[in-house]
Structures are given as structure tokens and as C-alpha cells.
Specification:
The chain has 13 helices and eight strands. With about 450 residues, it is α+β, with helices and mostly antiparallel strands. The strands form two sheets. Strands 1-4-5-8 form a four-stranded mixed sheet. A four-stranded antiparallel sheet has the order 2-3-7-6, with no helix packed on it. Helix 2 runs parallel beside helix 4, helix 5 (about 80-95) crosses helix 7 (about 225-240) and helix 7 packs across helix 10 (about 340-365).
Length: about 450
């Protein structure tokens, strides 16, 4: 195990390779589209994908190290969003080579943005209870139904859709996975404004929308297995210690129109070749550092219980990082850590709750104030004298979401209990009865 530990802690050859490649290829004067095509076709935009899917076959930790190296270099990183995080690895695992060349190429080069059309008003935690229907009509499928909590739907070109294609078999067996065009006439997107003031999620209504037969991914009625690949990538990416591609400086796809802009305008120094300091601990590490600085700034660092909770938060972040290294070490010897993505997702939920409670304690009564609209931000900064308090209240308001999206905490515990620990499931007829015969939510 000593050799494995050394391999997980030392810089990889991939980091040195991407630095050399950046020295030869980064040009801030390129358009975003031109740069992302150069990055994507080189394999460095999504190095965790297999080589036949525009990647380099690296493990998750090495892929995160490559992403950090690109950021530290001062170049524009890979196109973010759910295309790179979820759609690309799913299509690489279950799609044909033709589908990989059609869909994944446009993802790694930023040409198309994706959203996830899974949850429904009556099928969230019980995702297999979905009722959106896809009915075959020649070489097309006619899709009718409603999806909800669709992140990025308003900027998506394509959607990862799971729909019921056979109601006469048990509910997990009659689902099919499609890539569907979000710009067609039969698709309507309505934003859902959250209590943060933002609209990260959407409702999506489909009325006789069209999905060509060629967009069916992973085989007819095999959508549950394909969807589970998407969900495992989601939990691993969203979980503590798991690098993810959920955000980037420029937005991929055709809606926002970032592709025609200068690539160098999306990096901190204008892209002129300077280096910038990397994020260090990623999203959670940055939030932790913010809370430490705020506590030092207003004297709350002298409160022993605040210091104790900061240490608890630091420990959770470190456990996430070490779990990621555990996964890498296990993979190096051809093994796996059962349930680790689910554990990471649960850990992420606990981290955001800790950030919420601790952040509000640190800023005190200012935590009751929030800029719900961008135009309110200057007035709030002037009233509080602290431009960072809005970030704390934003984190606090948003903290209720991560324990729900990507599979609730309760779902994660059920998966760990049933699939990892082998505990008995609740008695039901879901596996044997036809979906059409199951009782439906009111």
C-alpha cells in the first residue's frame, strides 16, 4: 500500500503534460468556441473520459488535478455544466460510437449545453415512478409529460430525458433514456424562483415533443440502468472531495452566446499569460476560507465554539478529500469502495448545513438581510459595510437544496443500507407488478 499512497499523493504525469500542452496552445485571442474546440479535441477538456470519447482515460483525482492546472496556468477551463458532468460520461458508457461522435464531441467543445430531465412532480425520490410517456411513431418517439427541478434548462440545447416506453412491465423495466432537443416547439421551460432570489431550476413541459429513434441511448427499456450511470456521476461530482464541472467562466451552448467572445476575457488577468492562484480546496474550501476570514475580521474567531465549529467544518472537508484519495487508491489496484459516491453526497449535505449555521453565527444580525436581486446588492453592501455578508446569507438560504437535489439524503441512506450493507428492502410489488397497475400519487 505504500506505493499506492505515494502514487495518490505525488503530482501526476498528466499535470506536467497538460502544462506543456498549454504552453504551446493557449491563445487568449481565440474565440471561446475556437479555444474550446482546441481543448476538447486534445482530450484535456474531459480527461476522465475514455480515449474513444475525446478523453484520456484518467481517474477522477487526476482529472481534477488537470482542471486545477489549467486554472492555475491562467487559461479558460473546460466548458462547464451538466453536459460535461453527466451527459458525456453516460453517453461514453452506454452510447454507440456514432452517438459519442455526435453528442460528446459537441459537449467537450462547448458547442451544446445539456440539462437533466429526470424528476417529476410525482417522481422525485421514487424516480422510477415517472409518468412522462414516449410513444413510438415510425422512426420517432412522441414525448408528453412534465419534468421539474431542471437545472440549467433555460440555457440548454439538449436534455437527458428518461421517459416511460412500456407501462405493461414493472416500473424499472419500462424506461428509456433519450437525448432530446430543447429548442423544439413542443418544449416549454418555466423558471422556478427560489428563496435565494435566483432561478437555478425550471419546470419543463413537453407536449408531443419529438425524439428521433437515433437519440435513444443504451437500448430500448434499458433507461434505468443508463440513468443510474448519470446519477452515480452526479453524486460523485456533487459530493465532498469530488471535483466537478458544474460551473465555468463561460457558458457553453448556443443560448448565452459566449462562444463568439474572446477567450481571454473569461480569465482573471485577461488571458495575457500570467498565472493566478488556484482555488485550493475547491468550492467547499473557498467557502471555509471565507468564513475563517470573516471570523477573524469581526472578532468572532475569539469565540471558542466558533473555532471548534470551524475545525469541524475543516475536518469534514478533509474527510471528503481523503475519501477521494481512497477511491483513487482502490482503483489503482482494480478495486472499488462500495457506496462511496453516496457517502460523499451525504457528506456534502452535512458540509452545507455546517456552513449555513456557522456563517450565520459569525455575521450575526446581518444574516437576516439578503439581496434578492442583483440591483439590491450595492444597497446591502452599504448598509452592512461588508460585501461578503450576502455570500453568507446566499449559502445559508441555498443550504436546504443540496440535501434534496441529486437524490435526497434519505435515498442515499437507503442505497447504502440496501445495496452496500445488504439490509432488507421494504416489502412491495414494484419489481413484479406492471407499472400501469401500481397506485399513483394523487
Amino acid at each position: 500500500m505504500t506505493d499506492i499512497a505515494e502514487r495518490t499523493s505525488q503530482p501526476t504525469d498528466a499535470v506536467e503534460a497538460v502544462k506543456e500542452w498549454l504552453e504551446e496552445n493557449w491563445d487568449p485571442e481565440l474565440t471561446v468556441a475556437e479555444w474550446w474546440e482546441r481543448l476538447g479535441l486534445s482530450g484535456w477538456a474531459a480527461p476522465g473520459l475514455p480515449e474513444n470519447a475525446y478523453g484520456k482515460g484518467l481517474n477522477r483525482n487526476d482529472s481534477v488535478a488537470v482542471q486545477s492546472a489549467i486554472a492555475d496556468f491562467g487559461a479558460l477551463g473546460a466548458p462547464g455544466g451538466l453536459g460535461l458532468l453527466l451527459a458525456a460520461p453516460t453517453i461514453a458508457a452506454h452510447g454507440t460510437q456514432e452517438q459519442i461522435d455526435l453528442y460528446v464531441r459537441d459537449i467537450v467543445t462547448g458547442q451544446k449545453a445539456w440539462c437533466q430531465l429526470f424528476s417529476e412532480p410525482g417522481a422525485g425520490s421514487d424516480l422510477a415512478g415517472l409518468q412522462t410517456r414516449a410513444i413510438k411513431d415510425g422512426d420517432e418517439w412522441i414525448v408528453t409529460g412534465q419534468k421539474v427541478w431542471t437545472s440549467g434548462g433555460q440555457v440548454a440545447d439538449l436534455g437527458m430525458l428518461i421517459a416511460r416506453t412500456d407501462p405493461d412491465v414493472p416500473k424499472h423495466q419500462g424506461i428509456t433514456y433519450f437525448g432530446i432537443d430543447m429548442h423544439q416547439k413542443g418544449v416549454e421551460i418555466r423558471p422556478l424562483v427560489e428563496m435565494t432570489g435566483h432561478a437555478m431550476f425550471n419546470e419543463v413541459f413537453m407536449e408531443e415533443a419529438i425524439a428521433p429513434d437515433s437519440s435513444l441511448i443504451g437500448g430500448l427499456n434499458n433507461g434505468w440502468a443508463v440513468a443510474n450511470t448519470t446519477l452515480m456521476n452526479e453524486r460523485a461530482g456533487l459530493g465532498s472531495g469530488g471535483g466537478h464541472a458544474a460551473a465555468s467562466a463561460a457558458t457553453p451552448g448556443t443560448v448565452v452566446n459566449d462562444l463568439v467572445k474572446r477567450a481571454g476575457d473569461f480569465v482573471s488577468d485577461g488571458g495575457g499569460g500570467g498565472r493566478r492562484r488556484g482555488g485550493g480546496g475547491g468550492m467547499f474550501g473557498a467557502s471555509y476560507n471565507l468564513l475563517v476570514d470573516l471570523a477573524k475580521g469581526n472578532g468572532k474567531i475569539n469565540d471558542a465554539t466558533v473555532r471548534q465549529d470551524l475545525m469541524r467544518l475543516h475536518t469534514l472537508n478533509e474527510l471528503g478529500r481523503f475519501n477521494s484519495l481512497r477511491a483513487k487508491a482502490a482503483k489503482a489496484i482494480g478495486q472499488d469502495v462500495p457506496g462511496l459516491p453516496n457517502i460523499s453526497k451525504l457528506s456534502m449535505s452535512e458540509i452545507v448545513r455546517q456552513q449555513r449555521d456557522l456563517g450565520l453565527r459569525i455575521i450575526g444580525p446581518y444574516g437576516t438581510l439578503h439581496a434578492y436581486k442583483p440591483e439590491d446588492q450595492s444597497a446591502l453592501n452599504e448598509a452592512t459595510g461588508n460585501p461578503f455578508s450576502a455570500m453568507v446569507t446566499g449559502m445559508a438560504l441555498f443550504a436546504q437544496a443540496p440535501p434534496i437535489y441529486g437524490g435526497t439524503d434519505q435515498v442515499q441512506r437507503n442505497i447504502i443500507g440496501e445495496r452496500v450493507l445488504g439490509l432488507p428492502k421494504e416489502t412491495n410489488s414494484d419489481k413484479t407488478a406492471a407499472f400501469k397497475d401500481l397506485p399513483k400519487n394523487a
